[in-house]
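Our preliminary data section would be incomplete without showing what the modeling component actually yields. Below, a chain of 235 amino acids is followed by its predicted structure, encoded as tokens that our downstream tools consume directly.
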Amino acid sequence: MVWGIGAVAHPHHVPALVAAFLAAAPTLVLTGASAVFAWTFAGLAERVQIRAGSYSVERAERDGIAASVQQDRATILARDVAPFLAELRTREVVTDADRARARAIADGIRRSMVADADRTWFEHAVTVEGGAVTGIDDPDGLLATLDVDQRTVVRTFLRAALRASTVDPAGLRVTARPTGTGRVVTTIDLAVADSDVGIHRTFDPYFAVLRVTFPDLDVAVRPSALALRFSYDQH
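Predicted structure:
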């Protein structure tokens, strides 16, 4: 995977301005032009926008994702870069260790910009419908590996489920775990104040669509409870 200026062609579509900034960061810092770099950083931090996965900018803004991710990115840039700049201003000589640290900071920012933006789509899909992120158990960020079509299907089901009068959004539980063979297993559990017949009547159309996208979908319906289990390749 090639970053820097080439990131404009990457599937995550990191904005060209941000990609250029990240690619140039170590050089800018280490030329001694601290004031120029600080000014450039401050301007960029205000304008950072990340496109989550393969979402378009318009879609991200409509979903409310872009604003929250922009704030997160400005925060991480300030947290990692500003202290380094302040430290460099007190030195007369730039060492190899400084150069390595500058490269590490730039690489870390690039990785976090993409990873956090991808994670946001699922958390937002849950919270916008009244669910809680505390119910999401995905320590490795594997939900971010769903492709655009898979995300669309999962988000559609979540929206329908969490808006249903018989479902308590606070009771949503989601787990994602690797299988060790390049696949991810995800489970979605919901408390539903309805009979098994009523649950099927409400959600069977969504199960059908989910099964097209995830052929191994397993649906367990019991009175007052619904559990889904499916797997997919890590993309």
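The helical segments are 16-30, 34-47, 57-63, 65-89, 96-127, 148-163, 196-213. Residues 1-14, 35-58 have pLDDT under 50 and may be disordered. Preliminary results of this kind motivate Aim 1 of the renewal.
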